[in-house]
Specification:
Number of helices: 12
Oligomer: single chain
Mean pLDDT: 95
Low-confidence stretches: none
Shape: globular
Helix content: over 70%
Radius of gyration: 17 Å
Distance between the termini: 35 Å
Strand content: under 5%
Structural class: mainly alpha
């Protein structure tokens, strides 16, 4: 591993540990090659999600999203990565595979919506957006780990439910009463399929097992409960 890729890997690990501990904890169960890809994927999610808070107008956000789009396209075409630790890490992992190109492009398209201050009118609207963003990235993670299409589709559904349970009440406070029952129903449909995933695929899915914890606890942290739930999901396929 080169000094550049080591720096990128460490950057992604630190970024995800600080800003998305759930995915960081889950990734620790993965073997080294997959772990790097999952952390790069989680770091990409963080980078895309924080763009709206970093710009003063939509056009500037669109420019940043396009920068990420072009940077990912370059490494998927086999070119050198741009000078950014997330792209450097992605280039050294399965995330650079062309198979995910169209999926990632669609995620970047969907990531533009918050730039324009559009709210969410219904729980179905919110769930649809989360499935196009977080859920789509979770499906990519599952596919990188070797999941079949059925498990990847379940990961997309569960990923939307997880995001709704963890963040939905902040993103759409007008839908607070609808979010919990909607996310609960969505997760219950997906969970049985997640439990069928092979052990080597599980690290890409483990964070989704925390959905019931967030449905009960909301935004409150439950560090011990989270770690116990992740271990149970890994050891016994309990989603």
């Amino acid at each position: 591993m080169t000094e550049t890729s080591t720096h990128g890997r460490d950057h992604c690990s630190t970024l995800v540990r600080r800003q998305d501990e759930d995915r960081w904890l889950a990734a620790q169960y993965a073997k080294t090659p997959l772990r790097g890809a999952l952390l790069a994927l989680a770091a990409l999610r963080i980078e895309l999600r924080r763009i709206p808070s970093q710009v003063s107008e939509p056009q500037l956000g669109e420019i940043r999203l396009q920068w990420w789009r072009e940077g990912l396209e370059a490494i998927q075409a086999g070119g050198p990565p741009r000078a950014h630790p997330v792209l450097e890490t992605a280039a050294a992992t399965m995330l650079a595979d062309k198979r995910w190109a169209a999926h990632i492009d669609a995620v970047i398209d969907a990531a533009a919506r918050p730039l324009y201050g559009e709210g969410f009118s219904t729980a179905d609207d919110l769930a649809g957006w989360f499935r196009e963003t977080d859920g789509a990235l979770d499906a990519i993670g599952a596919l990188m780990a070797g999941a079949d299409e059925g498990v990847a589709d379940a990961a997309a559904k569960a990923g939307a439910a997880f995001a709704m349970a963890r963040e939905g009440r902040v993103m759409a406070p007008n839908l607070t009463e609808d979010i919990v029952p909607y996310a609960e129903r969505m997760y219950k449909v997906a969970a049985p399929e997640l439990s069928k995933a092979a052990p080597e695929v599980a690290p890409a899915l483990l964070h989704l097992s925390l959905t019931p914890v967030y449905l009960r606890k909301g935004e409150r942290r439950a560090p011990l409960r989270k770690r116990m739930k992740l271990f149970s999901a890994m050891a016994f396929a309990r989603f």
